[in-house]
Write a structure and sequence with these properties.
The protein is an alpha+beta fold and 41 residues long. The protein has one helix at 18-29; strands spanning 9-12, 33-36. A two-stranded parallel ribbon has the order 1-2.
Length: 41
């Protein structure tokens, strides 16, 4: 599904596991540029 967010930027905190990691994975697949923060990335 095209969300219209390709090429945009997102900051995902707590992205080393769990819900934060899942969000980061899906945003990356949608073509979003990511800045990730976590203890174990």
């Amino acid at each position: 599904m095209e969300l219209g967010i390709r090429g945009r930027w997102a900051i995902v905190c707590a992205s080393s596991m769990g819900l934060g990691r899942g969000c980061a994975d899906h945003l990356a697949r949608a073509g979003v540029n990511l800045v990730m923060n976590g203890r174990r990335v």
